[in-house]
């Protein structure tokens, strides 16, 4: 891996981290209402919620992208591209793929990618939320 690829991965990780932090702050401000009178235990409970929700969302994006990368949705894509489009809208174009195997080969040849940065940031945020939950339970 050369220097440019490493830099690109770090930038992607930073982007996902910033987006997770922004979601956590927005959640804290608009949903949990930090300006309401509360003691330290309640604030830690609210922070736990605010880190868990964006973590689940961003981690879910990363998880779904991994399932797609492994071919989990190929059957649906094949069925929609071959049967759905030709049966709903009558077109004069021939079917693009003759079998699911050809569809998967075309997808593999085109290259598949997934979002490991989103999965790592999401799991990290959920871990912070769980840590805050433990602190909340101890207090």
Number of helices: 5
Number of strands: 0
The quaternary structure here is single chain
**Helix share bin:** over 70%
Low-confidence stretches: none
Can you write the helix and strand succession as a string? HHHHH
Largest sheet: none
Average pLDDT level: 83
Report the span from N to C terminus.
Answer: 46 Å
Give the strand content: under 5%
Structural class: mainly alpha
Gross geometry: elongated
Q: Work out the radius of gyration.
A: 22 Å
Helix/strand layout:
Blueprint: H1 3-31, H2 40-69, H3 74-88, H4 100-110, H5 116-138
Helix pairs in contact: 1-2, 1-5, 2-5
Main traits of this protein?
5 helices; 139 residues; mainly alpha; 0% strand
């Amino acid at each position: 891996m050369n220097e440019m690829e490493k830099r690109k991965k770090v930038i992607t990780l930073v982007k996902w981290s910033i987006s997770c932090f922004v979601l956590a702050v927005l959640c804290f401000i608009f949903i949990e209402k930090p300006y309401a009178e509360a003691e330290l235990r309640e604030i830690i409970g609210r922070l736990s919620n605010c880190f868990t929700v964006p973590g689940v969302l961003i981690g879910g994006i990363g998880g779904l992208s991994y399932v797609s990368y492994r071919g989990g949705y190929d059957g649906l894509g094949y069925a929609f591209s071959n049967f759905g489009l030709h049966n709903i809208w009558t077109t004069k174009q021939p079917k693009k793929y003759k079998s699911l195997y050809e569809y998967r080969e075309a997808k593999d040849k085109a290259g598949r990618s997934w979002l490991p940065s989103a999965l790592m940031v999401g799991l990290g945020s959920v871990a912070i939320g769980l840590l805050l939950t433990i602190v909340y339970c101890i207090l």
